[in-house]
Every structure is written in C-alpha cells, then in structure tokens.
Amino acid sequence: MDSLILVLHIVVSLLLVGLILIQHGKGADAGAAALGGGGGGASSSVFGSQGSTSFLSRASAILATIFFISSLTLAYFSGKADRLESITETVITTETVKEVPADLPDLP
C-alpha cells in the first residue's frame, strides 16, 4: 500500500513540475502587448479565446491537491509503521570475565 501511494506521489510531483514549467506568467501578456504583439492573441488560440490559463491553472490546482493528500497519507503511514528497537536494546549481554591472565605481571 505504501509503495503504491509513493509511486502515485512521485508521478504527480513530476506532472506538477512539468505543468508549472509550461505555464507563462501573468505579466507575459502585458509584455507581449507592449512589445507590439498586435493584440491578436494568436499564440493562445489553441486553447480558446481565454487562452491556456484556465485549463492549466485548474489542472495544476487538481495535481497540487492530489500531491498534498498523498503527502499527508505517506506521513500518516510512516508514523504507523512498526518501529524497530534500538540496536543496543536487542544485543544480548553476557557476563564479562574479570580474571587477569596468569602470564601478565602485576602493574605497580
């Protein structure tokens, strides 16, 4: 279950990055009009008279919502995972031998 949500999270994040990169900024239309764009709006005629902003904005909002939901779901499942004990708690301790070997001289 975790791996399925993780794959969905990665795919959505890559789609969201790509979708954001193909959008143009709000000031791009004003800059094009100031530089003599003609005011025809031919560059955005593929997506209709409003341009691509409403479609791309809506799609990025939906992908961002899915991204946040999958992030919260992954955080929830990581908190519920079985935690391993510390390695120092799992080591079996034995009684140590405190005898001095017979062939060593006594220290002063």
Describe this structure in words.
With about 110 residues, the chain is mostly helical. The chain has a domain at about 1-20 and about 60-80. Helices cover about 55% and strands about 0% of the residues. It contains four helices and no strands. Helix 1 packs antiparallel against helix 3 (about 55-80). The radius of gyration is 31 Å and the shape is elongated.
Give the key terms:
mainly alpha; 4 helices
What's the short version?
This protein has 108 residues and is mainly alpha-helical. It has helices spanning 2-22, 28-34, 53-80, 87-90.
Supply the number of helical segments.
Answer: 4
Unreliable runs, pLDDT <50, ≥5 residues? none
User: Main beta sheet: strand number and arrangement?
Assistant: none
Question: What is the average of the pLDDT values?
Answer: 77
Shape estimate: elongated
- Strand percent estimate: under 5%
Give, in order, the helices and strands: HHHH
Structural class: mainly alpha
N→C terminal distance: 66 Å
Tally of strands = 0
Helix content: 55-70%
CA-based gyration radius: 31 Å
